[in-house]
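A note from the maintainers: we've had questions about how concatenated examples are separated. There is no special marker in the raw files; a new sequence line simply starts the next protein. For clarity in this README we add a label.
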Amino acid sequence: MIRLIQKNNGWLLLLVFSLLLGACGGGSDNSSAGNVSFPQRGQLQSAAWLGSVSSSALDFTGGSITLSQQQQLLKYDLDLYRLVYTTLDQDAGLIDASGLLALPRKNTQLASPLLSFQHGTIFHDAEAPSNDLGPSAAPLLFAALGYITLAPDYVGYGVSRGEPHPYLQKTASAAAVVDLLQAARTWLDNRGVRRNGQLFLTGYSQGGYVTMAAHQALEALNAADLQVTASVPAAGPYDVGATLDALLDQAGLRHEGAAAQRSLADTLAAALVGQIAPEDSDIDFDYSVLSAYISHGADGVVAQNVHDWQARAPVRLFHGRDDETVPFVSATRALGAMQARQSADVQLIECQAQPADHIGCIEPYGLYVIDYLGGLAQGL
């Protein structure tokens, strides 16, 4: 259901840096000086209809879901839109970005929950949510279940293709989600689409990281109509430094001594130049976070961590114990830190696949999200 990069065992350093396969605020108001209007974060710039999809055309039967189960689950045909909105780039400047809005065709009097799905690392713009409308695209699954579904492309994809993608950067990652939600609120209000006040967040791998960053930012924003009901961040590197440390440990690349450290830095720098993304990638990644780790270790990436905060809404951390792409320690560190902060309801859900590795846990993650959020959601 979710496209994640496959680990290439021939590239030891790609194992280290393929982490994610697979300060928010503002609003949608304009400020003005004379007759000149200046865009603010979360402002809807445009909306384009991408087409309609019948629920019978969707196909999620490649794994544990049978055709009969799919027919029971997927209740709604969909209308698909690309929203263009203002958000933050890697330098905290304003930029236009895009995302997918998948709208289930329901009785107009039925108020629906919102769900924001955050994708994992992708290396081709064609795989961005507002470009990939294939029958097994994850946002379409959630919309066919009855959620008004949003999926940010992220900066560097969609209408912002060619701009650097702020990889593992907390502020820009959160902003891509929060600002799309605010822009979508404007569009939905203008169309008279009713919502029931519920908001769910989920994503896998890099999408798990972005989900956690967005949840934290939304609780800090504390907007009355964007209160998080629950989130399911999965297999994400929430403690960036601890995750990279663990990857280097399992690869046997952490050593003492200045000469060894220089050699490691040279090797990792070479990987940054040519071995992280495939040769045919059309995305420009900003790897400054990884460069900071190379130079300063875990201390250099503390500002990008998203694991140590107090959550008011329930959080379900889904992760596999055998994950070698984003090691399990990322989830245990987040669980311990968030519980120590007296978060209201944070639990770690262990993937039960055999082996419980990064790729093998994608399908169990999807099934868990359907079940868990389905037990909370109203108006589906």
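[label: protein 2]
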Amino acid sequence: MTIHPTAVVEAGAQLGKNVQVGAFSYIDHDVQIGDGCVIGSHVTVMRYTSLGTGCQVHAGAVLGDLPQDLAYRDEKSYVKIGNNCAIREGVTIHRGTKLGTVTQVGNDCLLMAFSHIAHNVKVGNKVIIANGALLAGYVEVGDQAFISGNCLVHQFARIGRLAMMSGGSAVHKDVPPFCTTRSVSLNKIMGLNVVGMRRAGISSDDRLIMKRAFKILYQSNLTLPQAIAQLETEFTSEMVQEVCEFIKSSQRGICTLAKKHKLEF
């Protein structure tokens, strides 16, 4: 373990094997930092925050500070970060806002500089959140999603598995799995996240199935319930069923296809 002489580690903090803490960083009590984590300079890790193994936290990040919620009443709540996450400069992650609740980041995530994870957000595994992206309270992000720079995600909105938000887009509706939003737009889909699916090892046959399914969903002139019924009847694909279940569980509605914009495959 290596702790810089200018760093402050409060009594009661639990640091694993081979942890490094850089200059002028502050580790509060009731913090757990897993084996092999590297905490850079000027990092603040507040109480009730835990990091898994092998995480790297860069200069100026603040983890586990109080939620920005006027209803918060100093309840004991948590931030839990998984294994092998890279948390870049100036990232902020806030605690849950109600007693016993958690803001959670999964394993193998990359949170780029100055992105913000608000209270009670749930981020899946292998998620990338680029510079300046802002996730409001209670947002849910599925595994392997990619949220590009300066994107805005409204509270309670959901980003599906392997979805991609293009730069500067904003949503207050749900983004279905495997979709890509349109840059500098509000609640607009422009097509499938083909690159993401290829990188995830999804076969060309399965991508073709998704192409057919999304034409039914977005270009068939069916109502959303009619499109879901047709998808559930016509396809046995687990990916298509995942999309159907995601949409049926949506509380905010889903993003629509941009006008005069054909689906991109």
